[in-house]
Amino acid sequence: MEFKEIMLIILAGVLFNNFALERFLGVTPLLGSRGGAGKAARMGLAVTIVMLVTAALAWPLQTLVLDKLNLGYLQLLAFVAVVLAVVYLAELIVNRAMHGSLGVYFPIIALNSAVLGLAVDNAAEGYGFWASMAAALGAGLGFMLALVLFSGVQSRIDEKYVHRAFRGLPVSLLAASIMSMVLVAFK
């Protein structure tokens, strides 16, 4: 695979096929997190690392085990197990290294449909190892971009007066839909 193709896969994951804003996978941390751009960037980095490790483990699992043994019907179950194991290990490492966690939304990465969706998409696209890694990097960076941008939007919303009927989730959904329309314009 050429460098140009790898870069296009990464760019597509960040802008054109953004998991959070264009495909609406894994929007729970996007809509529910508060705490500024720094916290959003740390969460995005954690999701990116989990996506990279999951892609690195899911590709050989799909290629060397499920495809070789004709066990494609176990793909979803196997990928869920990989995602849970990777997130559990990442949480342990973060707790040991930082003497604390990334917050309540970090364990939700285990249930994050973006991480699982990435593994399933990579298998469905028939990507090789490096293309899978590029897709994981692009999806992770796109997710981080969405989190950081939306944290800025949330801080602006918190500063302004919002009518009582729109406070909380309604105004967040409106803001997310507008951001989604902006990304769809890139297609």
Structure description:
- With 187 residues, the protein is mainly alpha-helical.
- It has a domain at 32-143.
- 72% of the residues lie in helices and 0% in strands.
- The protein contains seven helices and no strands.
- It starts with a helix and ends with a helix.
- The mean pLDDT is 86.
Please write out the topology:
Elements: H1 3-16, H2 27-32, H3 36-66, H4 75-98, H5 113-125, H6 129-159, H7 169-184
Helix pairs in contact: 1-6, 3-4, 3-5, 3-6, 4-5, 5-6, 6-7
Q: What is the compact description of this entry?
A:
By secondary structure, the protein is mostly helical.
Task: Give me the Rg, rounded.
Answer: 17 Å
Q: Which structural class fits the helix and strand makeup?
A: mainly alpha
Largest sheet: none
Mean pLDDT: 86
DSSP strand count: 0
Proportion in helices: over 70%
What would you call the quaternary organization? single chain
Terminal residue distance? 23 Å
* Secondary-structure element order, N to C: HHHHHHH
Which term fits the overall shape? Answer: globular
Proportion of β residues? under 5%
| Poorly predicted runs of 5 or more residues | none
* Count of helical regions: 7
